[in-house]
TrEMBL record:
A Pfam family assignment: Complex1_LYR
CDD domains: Complex1_LYR_LYRM9
Protein family: Belongs to the complex I LYR family. LYRM9 subfamily.
Protein known as: LYR motif-containing protein 9
All copies of domain Complex 1 LYR protein, residue ranges: 11-68
């Protein structure tokens, strides 16, 4: 189960970035939202030079799985 509708449509890094920020809006407190927004931004900076399409798809898949886990952990999934 995905944290928000549309996870299956995420194919590009920018789509993933927007999707993850929308997931953050569903988190219960501003502090938690800011924590995960910061983590998302940092991760995108770290991977910004990635140019291997297969690796990009692995990163996207893992990020969606992690978002799903977080949403389930806080009781939103």
């Amino acid at each position: 189960m995905a944290p928000l509708p549309g996870a299956e449509l995420v194919q590009k890094p920018l789509q993933l970035y927007r999707y993850l920020l929308r997931c953050c809006q569903q988190l219960p407190t501003k502090g938690i939202q800011q924590h995960y927004k910061h983590a998302i931004r940092q991760s995108f900076r770290v991977h910004s030079d990635e140019d291997n399409p297969e690796r990009i798809q692995q990163i996207i898949k893992r990020a969606i799985e992690d978002a799903d886990w977080i949403m389930n952990k806080v009781g939103l999934g």
